[in-house]
What does this fold into?
Amino acid sequence: MRRTERLFQIIQILRSTRTPITGRNLADELEVSIRTLYRDMAELAAQRIPVTGEAGMGYVLDDGYDMPPLMLTADELEAAALGAAWVASQADPSLARAARDLVSKLSEAIPKELRPIVLDASSIAIETQSKVSERFDSALLRHAIRERYRLQLTYTDRDEGTTDRIVWPMLIAFLDRSRYLVAWCETRSGYRHFKTDRVQELKVLGEKYPERRAVLIKAWKEETAKSMPS
It folds into this structure.
């Protein structure tokens, strides 16, 4: 997550609650170090965002603060509309519905003269194959990824062998009309890619895995890069 996105996320988190949130809890939710969190809070203060904090108490956003109006260029709006259209054509039903809702909210949030850019864009996403069918609730999987919950999978590989796995879900990857769950597999002690339409059963376990997602993803990218042809 880029710093500008993280600053925006901090404001959104503080807006969503009326009780103080400690720096440690904010850092954990954003998956950053406490030192990075303190630098971010200093940057918000420099930008005159009315966040108050007290040692041992936590941070709160002053009542009455509102985000500045949404200001996007025509190209930025078209990029957002095209991205949402692609998600609507490629993702699971709940995420596809969210993409369509995003376009609707964008069209309401921007000035009237810019709405045709979103509603009648010059770029479109075209479907050429049927959508992936999955046996589990993809919204549940995304929740587990965001909250770092361990998963129990029953998985059938391409040779029709079925195994039970305990994994740490990191992200969902889209590749050639297929979706893959990228995870650290406790059973195999390594990173694995599970094609989502081969997952026979998915169960969210009650405990969270100990490592930060950002750390896992960084190590996965490094390992993947080493295996790629030069």
Q: What stands out?
A: The chain has a mean pLDDT of 86. Helices lie at 3-15, 23-30, 34-46, 74-90, 93-109, 115-119, 138-147, 213-227.
